[in-house]
Specification:
The complex is a heterodimer of chains A (199) and B (317). Chain A contains four helices and ten strands. In chain A, 21% of the residues lie in helices and 29% in strands. Chain A folds into two domains: 108 residues, 3-Layer(aba) Sandwich (Rossmann fold); 46 residues, no CATH class. In chain A, helix 3 runs parallel beside helix 4. In chain A, the strands form two sheets. Chain A has a five-stranded parallel sheet, sandwiched between helices. Chain A has a five-stranded mixed sheet with strand order 7-6-10-9-8, with no helix packed on it. In chain B, strand 9, helix 3 and strand 10 form a beta-alpha-beta unit. The two termini of chain B are 18 Å apart. Chain B folds into three domains: 99 residues, Beta Barrel (Elongation Factor Tu (Ef-tu), domain 3), CATH 2.40.30.10; 109 residues, Nucleotide-binding domain of ferredoxin-NADP reductase (FNR) module (Rossmann fold, 3-Layer(aba) Sandwich), CATH 3.40.50; 86 residues, Beta-grasp domain (Ubiquitin-like (UB roll), Roll). The longest helix of chain B is centred in the middle third of the chain and has 13 residues. Chain B is an alpha/beta fold and 317 residues long. The chains are: A alpha/beta (199), B alpha/beta (317). The interface between A and B is medium-sized, with 17 and 20 residues.
Chain lengths: 199, 317
Amino acid sequence: MERGYWIRSKPVYTALLWNDKATAHAVLAEGEGGLAVLKLFQQALPEQPITVFYSPAGADKDYLPALQAAVDADLRVFETTADLMAAWASYLAEARMGLRIYTTGIEKFMWDVAETAASFGILNQDVMKELTGSLARSVYCVHCKSLTHEVTSNIATCGGCGRKLFVRDHFSRRMGAYMGLMVDAENPGEVPQIEEIYP
Amino acid sequence: MSQLQVKVASIQDVSAGVRHFTLVDASGGELPAFSGGSHIVVTMPAPGRTYRNAYSLLSSPEDRAHYEIAVHRQPQSRGGSIYMHEAVKVGSVLDISYPVNLFALSRVAKHHLLIAGGIGITPFMAQIHDLERLGGDYSLHYGFRSREHAAFADALKGRVSQRAVCYDESLGQRMDFDALLRAQPLGTHVYACGPQGMVEALVATARALGWPEHHIHSEQFLAPPVGEPFTLKLSKSELEITVQGDMSMLEALEAAGVDAPSLCRGGACGRCELEVLGTDGQLQHHDHYLSDADKASGRKIMPCVSRAKCGYLELNL
């Protein structure tokens, strides 16, 4: 990729910051996102009630003791991310307008959180996101339409059809995935060197 | 601007100072389709000058045979609403614009909260037709000064009493925006139409409670405020035009035969934006369209409602 290559669809992730104009706050984190939650709780806390959803899945360190000590709020810990997502959906069903949503973890986790929020009428642009842990991508195969998760290399093997896919920067907010195109369509078998570029 | 010709089929007084007009196509055909929240601009050829005012359509968008509008007589107005009340009779033929919607319902909202003050009820009358037809979840909160000012309140009671709450200010009933907005389920969109103070208070409360900007919708058609006369210098057409104190810049341009674009004529849509090249005074922005930064830059102006306190204002037109 040439230096400075950029397309608009590629999301920009920043650091989480409290938004004081709110009626409540929900923070959703997975794995290494625990560290971003600790950073968030080092900022001056907003006045409104805060609920933290955390699943340690995929974390390199055990953030739980630090979170339990630092999070002066309703901290809910889940063994699996699936359990967390189920609790998130039930929480949203009871939530009122003015809820601010913050999420941190790998891209797949954050976009799953945003997709659940979207089913309750909240657009992904109103879900604040901080990428942590890994640059791993979800890849959408334009040939067989299946999704392959946690891709860390420039070329991925499609989990649906087995094609070698070139992983583009073109990102779908609806699917939370990058576009993958068959890399050797012109010259079958001629696959460039596979490198880990999304560690 | 493309125009339609309509004939006034009936006139009714629906509340103190509010007259309700039913319009049909002048040649007996179907009228163009519209969606709830749309307005038309009515051209009123009064002696000496032409008024053009925007009015929300309140009839059912499914009814292609009629348009209905309601006009509140504004005693301090420059003359448009008085013309509609005094000069327009059953059988009068009027030029109107095609319907334009600057106040459309969101397609992704899970719940619609409609807030009306006084004559601001009109766009919601048509939106309620759409919501009922599409099965949209909504509630309407309608405030008015007193029973005599409650246009369409009885019609609403009959049609959608389950979803409508009325507030009679003469009985001390007031909307509590803070409590109302806090109680809304996630995914709610709020729509406000009514007096400027009410709309501004609603929008400010929603923002303070953390409502995302695109969940907040409002519409106010402003009348061009009266000011002092000044001269417009048009750099491209090399014309000088005087804007009288009780005339808007847009009206002065039109009266001089200048082809200036416009749409809502109420400071809402942005169609009439003009580039300012210079002035020896101060711009007086009154629109809801330009950002604060645009207004401060002094490079842009909306001639439908804004003016200047100056000797001359030069425009790139």
